[in-house]
Structures are given as C-alpha cells and as structure tokens.
Design goal:
- The structure is a single chain.
- By secondary structure, the chain is α/β, with parallel strands linked by helices.
- The protein is 38% helix and 25% strand.
- The protein has nine helices and ten strands.
- The strands form two sheets. A six-stranded mixed β-sheet has the order 6-7-8-3-9-10, sandwiched between helices. It has a four-stranded antiparallel β-sheet with strand order 2-1-4-5, covered by helices on one side.
- β4 (55-60) and β5 (66-68) form a beta hairpin.
- α5 (145-158) runs parallel beside α6.
- The chain is globular, with a radius of gyration of 18 Å.
- The structure holds adenosine-5'-diphosphate.
- Keywords: ATP-binding, Cell membrane, Membrane, Nucleotide-binding, Transport.
- InterPro entries: AAA+_ATPase, ABC_ATPase_HisP-typ, ABC_transporter-like_ATP-bd, ABC_transporter-like_CS, MetN_ABC_transporter-like, P-loop_NTPase.
- This is Amino acid ABC transporter ATP-binding protein.
- It is a peripheral membrane protein.
C-alpha cells in the first residue's frame, strides 16, 4: 500500500537516517522498535512531512501520491503527504486553551475547510469511540494523561487519514494509564486501521503487530513478523536489543 524507499535524513553533520526502506500494507500494524537515538521518531516525522527527508521516495499504491524527496517537492506535495496520516505524539500536543472537542475540530475545520456543525457531530462520534464523549467540553488540564492521549488519538482520526502514526504514545503516561491507551490502539487495529507505531511496549508488539522493524543507528537492522523477531531471530543486534529490554 505504501512504499517507502531509501529515506535519508541528516541534521547538519548528524546523519540520522541512512537509507530506510519499508512497505506498509493496508490494514497492517507496523511496530518500530530500537534503542534511543536510532532515528525512529525522525523516520515517523518524515512520513508525516514534519521533517523533510534529504532523499528517498514515498509512494501510495493507489496512485494518489508519490513523493521523490531528491526532487525537492513543493509545499503542495508536502501538504498532501501530511494529510495522508494522523500523528499521535508522545506528549499529546493538545492545545491547552481549547476544549477536548475543539482540539478535535481544529484540524478538519481549519485545514480541510469542513462545515463546523457537521464536524462537531463527527467529533462527538470520535470522542464516543475513545470513550470520552462526556469529557467533550473539558480542557486538557482537567483530563488525566491517558484521557489526553485518547483525545490525541481521536484528533488524529478526525482528519480521516489513510494511516495513523504513533510516536511512543504511552511513554509519558503513568503505568496505570498505559493500558487504556493501548486498548484504544488495539481497537483501532482490529477495525483495520493502517498503523505505524514507535513504542517500547514489547507486549503490544507481540500481540498486535503484523510486522516488526528493529532500527539502530539510522538503519533497519531486521524486520519480520513478531514471531520472527522475538522468537526466531539469530541476528546479534536483535538479540542484544531484546536482552536489554527484558
Ligand atoms: P529515536 O526516536 O530512535 O530515539 P530520534 O529520531 O529522536 O531517535 O533521534 C535520532 C537523532 O536525531 C538524535 O541524535 C537526535 O539528537 C537527532 N535529532 C532529532 N531531531 C532533531 C532536530 N530537529 N534537530 C537536530 N537533531 C535532531
């Protein structure tokens, strides 16, 4: 469905991504694991055009979009890429002075120019979906971290993306709130959403991932099914990584 080829990204002299290839199939959940500093977040941000890769291509099988970063894509192309995916951030990134429902409506009303009344109805449906319909008019500071993150997920859904990107969505949460957010993500996976998830939650990867990718030092070290990576891998880097997190 989405073919990502040879993504390179440097910040000054710091070469962070050194040629990442990945194919994401429609309806699949891809989990990206790897030690801190290996480039996982940068890669996710490249998929959403929050960072612009120095070279590489991203193309959608349905012919809707194909971006070649070596050709310096224009703003319109980058915006089109941005609209393909909804991003869920580690620190939620909600607007603190907007209510839960207004946080959801901002993207669709401002960016997509949707009708406000219609969007309010859709936003309430999304809040229901993440179990927070009764919190619509509360501000982020009145919600727990887990609730804020579920608002973050609903906001990512609000723009009706092809793809959901999660950047360590549970790592800022108190341990007792992590399961709530993982349950919401599992529900989305079972509904057939295409998801790319950077996480340290190995059990989530084991239970939910169709495809697991291990990154290190700006490269994909190994990829395959959860079973291939967690049980059958003979790759020394994979074994070293799994030993560190056990
Ligand atoms: P991971 O998500 O695997 O921990 P990151 O993608 O966050 O890795 O970071 C990889 C490297 O890229 C780090 O060395 C980090 O300092 C660098 N980096 C990330 N974003 C920026 C940025 N905006 N400017 C400069 N360096 C950055």
């Amino acid at each position: 469905m989405i073919h990502i080829k040879n993504i390179h990204k440097a910040f000054g002299d710091n070469k962070v991504l050194k040629g990442i290839d990945l194919t994401v199939k429609k309806g699949n959940v891809v989990v990206i694991l790897g030690p801190s500093g290996s480039g996982k977040t940068t890669f996710l941000r490249c998929l959403n055009a929050l960072e612009t890769p120095d070279q590489g291509t991203i193309s959608f099988d349905d012919g809707s979009l194909s971006v070649d970063f070596a050709q310096k894509p224009n703003k319109k192309t980058l915006l089109a890429l941005q609209r393909k995916s909804g991003m869920v951030f580690q620190s939620y990134n909600l607007f603190p002075h907007k209510t839960a429902i207004d946080n959801l409506m901002l993207g669709p009303v401002v960016v997509q120019g949707k009708n406000k009344a219609e969007m309010r109805k859709d936003a309430l449906t999304l809040l229901e979906k993440v179990g927070l319909a009764d919190k619509a008019d509360l501000y982020p500071f009145q919600l727990s971290g887990g609730q804020q993150q579920r608002i973050g997920i609903a906001r990512a859904l609000a723009i009706e993306p092809d793809l959901l990107l999660f950047d360590e969505p549970t790592s800022a949460l108190d341990p007792e709130l992590v399961q709530d957010v993982l349950a919401t993500m599992k529900q989305l996976a079972s509904e057939g959403w295409t998801m790319v998830v950077v996480t340290h939650e190995i059990n989530f990867a084991r239970d939910v991932a169709d495809h697991v990718v291990l990154m290190e030092g700006g490269y994909v070290v190994e990829e395959g099914s959860a079973k291939q990576l967690f049980e059958d891998s003979e790759h020394p880097r994979t074994q070293a990584f799994l030993q560190r997190i056990d």
